[in-house]
Write a structure and sequence with these properties.
By secondary structure, the chain is an all-alpha fold. The chain has one domain (4-188): Orthogonal Bundle (Hypothetical protein af1432), CATH 1.10.3210. It is built from nine helices and no strands. The protein has helices at residues 4-17, 26-43, 51-60, 69-73, 80-96, 107-119, 129-143, 153-167, 174-188.
Length: 189
Amino acid sequence: MNTEPYEKYLIDTVLPQLEQGRPGWDKPHTVHVVEYVKKIIDNEPTVNTDKDALVVVAYLHDYGYMFFKDVLKSGPTKGIAKTQHAKKSAEYWTKIQDNEVFSAFSDTQKERINHLIVVHDEVEHLHAHDELLFMEADTLGALAMGNFQNIDNDVYQKYLNSVEQRRITRFVTDYAKAHAEKFIAKARK
């Protein structure tokens, strides 16, 4: 499948809108996640998953935060924005999935994209291979951002501990494990 038309569409329409959710985070984080989806799949020859579907998921997974911009201004992303952004992202996907640029995607692929968007932050409930691969890319995309908000070091270290315990222990590819370890080691210095 030629990825250019749908990816160009997502770059042109989705990326600019991401700054409306969590400015300074959603857009660069998304770019990192897209990059890591591709790298994980390309660097793991035994990975048998739908790269095109995961790339779409990468662009859209945090799109829903833009619907909570007022909530996000008043506090951390916990609460309604954290729990509902994926649902809003999936709703947006259902609105655009019939665009001509997605015509090469089967109904099964479109349903899977929707599912992956909805469940991407339900870390403890992820079991399917594509769910875990996307969680790896999402985690690496967050770690690549470092402590960009310059939050208190103790709070950041707790975050890193949580990532190690809740996410990295569930990684299935050597590529992602190695990169996560590098990011964690660098952040701990």
